Amino acid sequence: MNADRIMALSRAGVAVEVVEETGSTNADLLARAPRLTAPVLLVAEHQTAGRGRAGRSWLSEPGHSLTFSLAWRFAGGLRGLAGLPLAIGVALAETLGRLGQSVQLKWPNDVLKDGDKLAGILVETQVAADGAAWTIVGIGVNLVMPDALEDRIGRSAAAMPWLARMGRDELMATLLDGLAEALALFARDGFAAFVARWNTLHAWQGRPVVLLDRGEVQHEGLAAGVDDTGRLLLDTAAGRVTIVAGDVSLRTKD
Ligand code: ATP
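That is the input. Now the predicted structure with adenosine-5'-triphosphate docked in place:
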């Protein structure tokens, strides 16, 4: 992939860097956050130690996925950023939708295709000396899913071989534009601008689900979408409960 080409194809005005290989693009940008002065997109052709939530891993093989992180500054600091990972999911899903891929969202922020995970999102933050927050939005998107990689992941995973035929620089630039637009809107209007869009894309609306905390069932009920701060609404036998995204995992019951 070519950084200059991605920048030329994008409308976002964001600096772009492409590296052949790194451990984690999120880790790299987090380490640079104290010195950053403007948004930057870091793309890795090959990511060897991709991270998911709570120490989980994001696995990929060179040439078969897009792995990248976007550093973005929020002048107002951490306040109000709770729904950001979900807003990023909306931006990613809608951009893929415009490219002809029908995808859905699983709370809090996985992108699913035909029920399997197509993309993962990890948002990490660092507060700057002036009180602003740098958010590092890390994304891995499967383009092709070789059997050997799916075996390593240990569950079925989705890919989009049709979109994989599109030029990678063009695809990356299109995703960057969708994300930059969403980040600017989030900075202005917060998650309120995304809640209805998230609920429209919700993969498991009305379906029986269980919420797991370290493997233990914490709640079960019908998934009822998210509220205006991005909390999951679950209709249980004891009434409606709201769930904050911590280290909990959602699974379908059927
Ligand atoms: P869960 O999906 O279990 O609720 P999560 O949403 O927190 O967890 P993430 O932290 O976003 O998941 O992603 C890490 C998980 O994604 C891994 O534990 C693994 O199951 C799965 N995974 C890792 N690499 C891939 C990939 N390339 N494609 C699809 N799924 C993957």
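Residues 168-189 form the longest helix (22 residues).
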